[in-house]
Amino acid sequence: MACPSFRTSSWAPRLPCVDGDSSTRFRGRNLSGDLLPSLGATTTQQPPKLRRHLVSPYDPRYKVWEVFLILLVVYSAWICPLEFAFLRYLPRAPFIVDDVVNGFFAVDIVLTFFVPYVDSKSYLLVDDPKKIAVRYLSSWFAFDVCSTFPFHSISLLFNRHEHSLGLKFLNALRLWRLRRVSSLFARLEKDIRFNYAVIRCTKLISVTLFAIHCAGCINYLIADRYPDPRRTWIGASMPDFREAGLWVRYVTSLYWSITTMTTTGYGDLHAENTREMLFGIAYMLFNLWLTAYLIGNMTNLVVHSTSRTRDFRDMVQAASEFAARNQLPQQIEEQMLNHICLRFRTEGLKQQETLEILPKAMRASISLCLFFPVVHGSYLFKGVSSGFIQQLVTEMQAEYFATKEDVMLQNDKPSDLHLLVSGAVDVLAFLDGTEQIYGKAAEGELLGETGVMSNKPQPFTFRTTKLSQILRISRSKLMDIMQENREDGQIIRSNFQQKLRMEQRLYIATHQDDRVGAFEQRLDP
């Protein structure tokens, strides 16, 4: 397959890390924000820095600026509907803050002309000022200007008490800034430093609160603008509601909005005229969509968190039914269930999946760090070179075995060599039709080396007595490594012969019966 073509004169964008439910903490910097060079590009082909007078979108200072603007967007999202509905004569004081906020967003409009962007087709960072300007002018520039223009301050030059709906709708254009919050949540959902479920729930709660706030403000505006104040939803219970404090009117509006959204409908506040009825119909239709959106998202979060448990219970049930249907012995059924339970526990750790996505050299470094001491301490590898141990460790795979689970069976083909890292294992043998314990394997001991080294069927059955972690390497890979390192291979064979003779003498000294010949035949390489 041909490699994709990339320009080597630019930088490729960062790639976000996706993880639905990870909350890992990093002591170092967040690597997901680094720029990745294009394929085939060398460091000499990459420009050392952006063009002059440009601001990198990945600069930490620019990130702080974006966060600051998000806080201003949250303020605008709250104050804009409030001013739209409750401040009938638009007093000057609240709009001084609005003008300051608009000033910050005006600075951001100018700054955007100096911030490179990632091309959607080539996925490269474009730092050409002309292309940056053309892209911004042809996309969000007009909307950003309209949402930043100080319409109220300009209107005061002509009429200090301007309170027309037209001006209010122009001020409502500031809600366009909410797209920044949407982009923020999209980035946070992909950021591995934050828990996905928490970010998602925060987004759903924010959408709900904003909908309640806006609906309450709009419904109050309809009542405030109605010719007969007493024939309104709030005037029926508060005839002089315009004389009440802002806090009382705002809380009453939120109360109506929440009871309508939740379909509680106590009946104390209800539509009194056609305008309010029409808005109530529209709001309830919107609530149908919002409720479906919330339920769908929450269902996905719950299903995602419980799907593994449900699959685990189904698998246990299927295994129990299989054992009962085929009349398997109790011991085999227990082994099956223990293995399924252990698999459920280990899958939750995602250890194997984590290792598989890493480069081979990194996997080798991790294996050396974790297993080099225990492999080097095994009798079979005493005296071999460190290079041989490194080759051996990188080819080994770690596995977990539940209690009373068979690691290998007597007379099995010697396909793998096992090393007990932690736990305990019984060494069993069938003699005279009965299963007897021949010995016990402790941590750091090898399992099945007799069959592997002599290329004969395994003489024993190895069964765990508690949860055990075991390293495994195939016989073919072991023999290949020994063939490549002949001196180390001779040392291994010598160690095996010495251990084998020692075990035979010990067994003959402790078991003086007619079964000695049978064991000598099994252990003889």
Would you spell out the secondary-structure blueprint of this structure?
Blueprint: E1 11-12, E2 36-37, H1 60-85, H2 92-112, E3 117-118, E4 125-126, H3 129-137, H4 141-148, H5 151-156, H6 165-171, H7 178-190, H8 196-225, H9 246-261, H10 274-325, H11 330-349, H12 351-356, H13 360-376, H14 386-394, E5 397-401, E6 406-408, E7 416-422, E8 425-431, E9 434-441, E10 446-447, H15 449-454, E11 461-464, E12 468-474, H16 475-484, H17 486-510, H18 516-523
Antiparallel strand pairs: 1-2, 3-4, 5-12, 6-11, 7-10, 7-12, 8-9, 8-11
Structure commentary:
Helices cover 55% and strands 10% of the residues. The protein has 525 residues and is of the alpha+beta class. Among the domains are: 51-187; 360-511, Jelly Rolls (Sandwich), CATH 2.60.120. The strands form four sheets. It has a four-stranded antiparallel beta sheet with strand order 5-12-7-10. Strands 6-11-8-9 form a four-stranded antiparallel beta sheet, with no helix packed on it. Mean pLDDT is 79; it is low at 1-48 and 513-523.
